[in-house]
Write a sequence for this structure.
């Protein structure tokens, strides 16, 4: 039985904030010590306002597994750290204060064993119904482009990263071009450390959904359910034809959450996360016009300096936490995250002169800054910087899996 099912949504203005691409955690360092775990081909660091230097693995760390090494350096107050991944020709630079973050991990490659999880759906409704099960976010994102309703009741999810996950299975009702979630079953705390077969999803034990309005004024959006162990499942969209999200009844807990994202072509993004047990959660409206425009940023290709880092959020936006810069041409991409605390009272930022750093890879930096595409973003949030950073490197997802919190992004093309 085939249907052309329109579950897809294109958000054309999504901006990649570099803080959301690494795996980080705070605490645990010695006095003034910054600890880095990474497989990057080159790592550089700047202690406080000193010179950039190539970072060598810590002498105290003799273990190396799958190219992952441990690095340590000291900084009194603030620091910069840079990673370059030669295979993808991508670089990232992070500027934090030590109190914000002193211990984090950045991976160029995947370092987790991956397995297959399979089983059978039982007691599904007859007629135009189909079910989809997912374990991790990568599997669940397949919901965005469903073009065929499967005839079989079996499911197989491949490439599941090793770790503890929740299996979330959703039964959908298909009525012509209208597709709605009908029942959901959640199996929690599955340890994926081998191929898992024979799982049974019995929809007799499932819970129903309550539909609510999901509106993004002057934009489009998506809604996700995020389970306790970070399985991410699409639960709603807002575009020209649909404006609904579906709340799961009865079987959620305080460690589950709902994530709502709105974006528009004016390079504005609003993300909010709510506990799944929050009282009164129902209709959701995101007004992207409430985010102030970013118009003051500029870049001088001669001095390689960004100016105008004095963005003022609107009265309805969270506090400014920092800036994101993206530089790219056809051969190379660098993303830069700068915390507001690192900037202090400064409203300008100058790019590092990486080619002059001993050990920096040849060809890993831009030769001509007049020919690269540059965008600047201001990032607002009501949570700490470390909570904006992706805390689980197994997840393949564009947004941090916040259990509760809000952040916004306003961007402009600088060059």
């Amino acid at each position: 039985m085939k249907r052309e099912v329109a579950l897809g949504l294109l958000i054309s203005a999504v901006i990649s904030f570099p803080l959301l691409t690494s795996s980080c955690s705070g605490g645990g360092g010695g006095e003034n010590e910054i600890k880095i775990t990474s497989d990057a081909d080159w790592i550089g660091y700047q202690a406080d306002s000193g010179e950039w230097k190539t970072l060598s693995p810590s002498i105290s760390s003799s273990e190396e597994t799958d190219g992952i090494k441990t690095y340590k350096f000291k900084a009194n107050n603030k620091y910069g750290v840079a990673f370059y991944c030669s295979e993808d020709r991508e670089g990232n630079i992070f500027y934090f204060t030590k109190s914000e973050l002193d211990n984090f991990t950045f991976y160029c490659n995947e370092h987790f064993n991956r397995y297959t999880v399979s089983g059978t759906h039982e007691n599904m409704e007859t007629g135009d119904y189909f079910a989809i099960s997912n374990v991790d976010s990568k599997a669940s994102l397949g919901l965005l482009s469903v073009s065929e309703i499967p005839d079989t009741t079996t499911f197989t999810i491949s490439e599941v990263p090793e770790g503890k996950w929740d299996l979330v299975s959703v039964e959908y009702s298909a009525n012509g071009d209208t597709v709605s979630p009908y029942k959901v079953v959640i199996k929690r705390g599955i340890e994926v450390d081998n191929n898992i077969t024979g799982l049974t999803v019995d929809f007799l034990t499932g819970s129903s959904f309550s539909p609510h309005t999901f509106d993004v004024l002057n934009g489009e959006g998506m809604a996700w359910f995020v389970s306790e162990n970070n399985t991410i499942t699409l639960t709603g969209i807002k575009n020209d034809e649909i404006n609904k999200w579906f709340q799961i009844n009865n079987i959620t807990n305080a460690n589950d959450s709902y994530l709502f994202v709105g974006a528009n072509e004016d390079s504005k993004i609003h993300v909010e996360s709510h506990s799944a047990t929050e009282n009164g959660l129902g209709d959701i409206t995101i007004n992207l016009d409430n985010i102030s425009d970013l118009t003051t940023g500029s870049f001088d290709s001669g001095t390689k300096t960004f100016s105008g880092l004095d963005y003022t959020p609107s009265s309805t936006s969270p506090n400014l936490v920092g800036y994101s810069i993206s530089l790219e041409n056809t051969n190379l991409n660098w993303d830069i995250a700068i915390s507001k605390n690192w900037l202090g009272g400064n409203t300008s930022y100058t790019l590092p002169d990486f080619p002059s750093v001993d050990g920096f890879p040849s060809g890993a930096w831009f030769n001509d800054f007049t020919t690269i595409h540059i965008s600047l973003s201001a990032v607002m949030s009501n949570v700490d910087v470390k909570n904006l950073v992706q805390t689980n490197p197994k997840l393949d997802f564009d947004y941090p899996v916040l259990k509760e919190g809000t952040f916004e992004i306003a961007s402009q093309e600088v060059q």
About this structure: The longest helix spans residues 137-140. The radius of gyration is 23 Å. Helices lie at 137-140, 340-343, 385-388. Residues 1-28, 141-146 have pLDDT under 50 and may be disordered.
